[in-house]
Amino acid sequence: MVDLRATPFNLDEGGVAWVEATIAGMTDEEKIGQLFVNMGSERSEEYLTAVLDEFHIGAVRYNPGTAEEVWEQNRILQERSKLPMLIAANTEAGGNGACTDGTYVGHGAKIGCTHEVRYAYELGRISGIEAAAVGCNWSFAPIVDIYRNWRNPVVSRRSFGGDVDLVIEMSLAYMRGIRESGIAPAAKHWPGDGIDERDHHLSHAPNWLTTDEWDETFGRLYQTLIDAGLPSIMAGHIALPSYQRHFNPAMADDDILPASLCKEITTDLLRGKLGFNGVVVTDASHMVAMTGAMKRSELLPAAIEAGCDMFLFFNDPEEDFRWMMEGWRSGRLSDNRLDDALHRILGLKAMLGLHERPREELLPPKQEALARIGLPESKAVAVEIADRAITLVKNKDPQVLPLSVERYPRVLVVPISSPPSPFAMMVDSGAGHPADKVVAKLNERGYRAERYVSQLEQVQGRSPEEVRQILRDAYAGKSPISGLTDNHDLVVSVAEVNGLGQPVERPYWPGTKGTLDMPWYVHEVPTIVISTASPNLLADMPQVKTFITAFDDQDFTLDAVLDKLEGRSEFRGRPATEMFPFADTRI
Question: Which of the seven top EC classes does this enzyme belong to (predicted)?
Fold first, then answer.
C-alpha cells in the first residue's frame, strides 16, 4: 500500500530492505509503540529508559529545556532505544522551539508582513541549524493555515497571512531552509485552520469552506507542498464537513468528525485525491475537538484507522497503550492500516538516514552542537526582520508622530492584557508585562514615563469587602479629565493579548467607570497603541487613531518600535492579510 521508493521517502533498495526487515522482526508491542509520540514528564535517564522499554515509542516531542538539557535527553533516547527515534521540535518561530536558549526569529505573521520570502527561508534555516544541533530530526512546522477570520484565536500571529499565494511561497521557503539541516518538516494544521472563530484546543472548530472554496485555498496549498516533497503533515482536530459529505453523502450532521478521526478527510481526501504518501501525525490528543468526539478508548485506534500514522502524546501511558493494543486486537485498528503506518514511520526514519549511522553518532558532538545555538548572525536576522515587519496599521492623527522628549516629556504607559489563563501563565517567560519594558526604554531615552496601575492591581491583598467599597467609590467619586490631561502629554498603551487557553483573543478590560485601562481618551490626549501579540485589537478599540503591531515584545523589537515612533527609521511592514479589521475606520 505504501510506496517507499516514491516521494517523499525516495528510498533505495537498502532503505526499503531495512524497513521490511525491521517490521518483520518486531513484536506486537513494539509495533503498537511505534505509533506513539511521547511528551515526557522528565529527562532523567531512568525515566527515559523506562518509557522506551515499556512502551517502545517511535517518537518524542519534549517539554522545553536548555540546549544542553535537550542534547543530553536526546542522546539518551537515541542510544537506549531499540530503533532510532524521531525527535520533534516545535520550531514555528525559530530555534527557541527546540531549546529555550535558541534563537527566536519571528512568528509567521511577523514574517508575512515583511512580504520577503527570504525571511521565511531564514526562519526555516536557523530553526534547522539549532534543532539539529540538539538532536532533533523532525519539526512540527511550518504553520500553513490561511488566516481568513480575524476572530480565530489560534492562528492569529502564527500564520504567514491570508493570501494563499503568499502562504504557499513562504511555506515552501521554510521547508527548503529547515531541510538543509536534515530535518523533516510537518506542515500543520490539516485540513486548514483560520476559518472558524473557535479554538480546537477548547471546542469543536470546523473549516466551513465548500469543496470548491477549499480546493482553491487549502487544497491548492497542500497540493503544492506535497508536490514539492513535503514528508509529513499534522492532522488538526478540524472537521471539513463539505468534503466529508462529498465522500459520504449519506452522513448525518452527528457524523461530522475532526480530520484526525475522519477517514474521508485524512484517507480519501489527503491520501486519495491529493496523493500524499508521507507520514500523518495527529495534533495533541488532549484537545477538546478530539476528546469531545468519542471515548478515549475508541479514539486511539480510530485515529490510526482514519489515516493518521502517529498519535501525539499519551494521556496516561499505561491506559493509552493498552487501549491502542486492544483496538488492534479487536479489529477496530486493522492489520492493513497498522502495517501502512509502520511502513511510513520507518520510511521517514530511513529517509532521514537514521538507520545508516551508529546510534551514538545521531547527534553532533556536544560542544560543537552548543556552539551553534544563538549565533550572532542568527540574532542579526531576527533584528532585521523586526525592522521590516513592524507595521503602522492605523495613523489617523499623523501630527502625533514623530515623538520626541521636547513634544511629549510626560508619558503614561498603560498595559493591556488577555483574560487570565492558567495555560498562558504556564508558558509565560516570567519577564512581566511588556509595558514595563517600554517604561524603562522611554526613560532611557529621556522621557518621564510612568506605568499605569490598574484598579485590580491596587486592590490586591485587600479583603472582599474592602475591594467592593473601593470599586463603589470609583463610580461615586469624581474623576476629572484634567487629572489625565494636566499630568500627561502622551499615552502609550502596550497590549499583550493572545488566545492561549481562551476561546477568544480579545483584550481584557478590568476597569470600572471607564478607567485608563481602556483607551477612551483618544480625543483628550495623544494616544498610541502598540500590540506585542495579537494584531487584531482594533475591533475592540476602533476609536484609536494610532495603532502599531509589533508581533512580540523582544527587546530588539521594542527598540525598533520606539526608533520608528521617533522618526529614526521608517515603518516598513505591510499587512499580509485582512488581519486588521477597522484599520481604516474614522471614529
Answer: hydrolase
